[in-house]
Amino acid sequence: MKKSITIFLIIVMGMFAKSEVALAGPGHDHGESQKLHAGIVMPRFFAESDLYEVVGVVKGKKMTVYLDRFQTNETVNNADIQIDFDDQSLRLIPKSDGVYEGTFGKDLVSKEIAVSIFIKVGDESDILVTTYDSTDKSSKDTFGWQVWGTWIATLFAVIAVFLLMYYRRHLWLPTAQRLVTMIKEKL
Q1: CB–CB of 20/141 below 8 Å?
Q2: Can you tell me the distance from the alpha carbon of 186 to that of 78, in angstroms, rounded to the nearest whole number?
Q3: Which run of H or E residues covers position 97?
Q4: Is 158 exposed, middle or buried, given 0-12, 13-18 or 19+ CB atoms closer than 10 A?
Q5: pLDDT tens digits along 22-72
Q6: Global pTM exceeds 0.85
Q7: How far apart are CA 184 and CA 65, in angstroms?
Q8: Rounded to an integer, what distance in angstroms lies between the CA atom of residue 97 and that of residue 102?
Q9: What secondary structure letter does DSSP report for 141?
């Protein structure tokens, strides 16, 4: 009986021992670790061309766009940006280095939306086209179907092991006792 409890405790501890932490060896740690963010990621879109990269974040009626050069990743300042988004045309205003903001006139619908981005910087101009999915998404699905599936499969495996141990104990124990008795009689 003690052996069964020990095996059960080892299996339960093994279920909780799964870790997603990776440790770096000497010389491979890169200074202070950054804090990880878990939670809801605001809906965003991404587009790139030969000249520019654009990342847009929408929160309510407010849109923030981050613009940089594709080849060098340097921020692009003083750009004239116009976005056609959900049947609304929006001209963005520079907020800081490479960051532009604007506000929509009406609420957005929850669906996949085509986005056209017109960028003009000096003599350069470019048009970027992408799509935007307006539904909120979790940045880390803490307990998704894979995690629940793993837990349920492990639970079934533990139950099966205990049923097998119980069944075998009651099946083989009397046979083993008879063998011991026969051996003692012959001696």
Answers
A1: no
A2: 102
A3: none
A4: middle
A5: 555 555 655 555 555 555 556 688 899 899 999 998 888 888 999 999 889
A6: no
A7: 87
A8: 15
A9: -
